[in-house]
Amino acid sequence: MSRSAHSSSSASAGSRSSKEARNGPHTGVIAASTEGNVPGSYSLNRADVADYLLRAASDDTLIHQTVAIAQG
To answer: What pTM did the predictor assign?
Structure first.
């Protein structure tokens, strides 16, 4: 199962490694997959992580699933 959520706004680039959460603004552009890593993306702003976690908490299809999330 792959999911993608899109909204407007732009992500800010930082000098940190590309494989971690950043302190950028909420973008609403999130890719999620229960079938392995999200291809081509390795980072996500903390605000987008929080947004996804709040939405995923009420999604019963994700019970007992491992979900990979990244900027979409």
So the answer is: 0.65
- The candidate with the shortest Cα–Cα distance to 10, out of 67, 48, 60, 65, is 48
Q: Which domain holds residue 19?
A: 2-71
- Confirm if 28 and 69 have CB atoms less than 8 A apart: no
Do the beta carbons of residue 30 and residue 49 sit within 8 Å?
no
Distance CA 67, CA 32 (A): 7
Token code pair at residue 67: 């979900």
Domain count, the chain: 1
CB 3, CB 19: distance < 8 Å: no
User: Tens-of-pLDDT digits for all 72 residues of the chain?
Assistant: 445 554 433 334 444 444 566 788 999 999 999 999 988 877 889 999 999 999 999 999 999 999 999 988
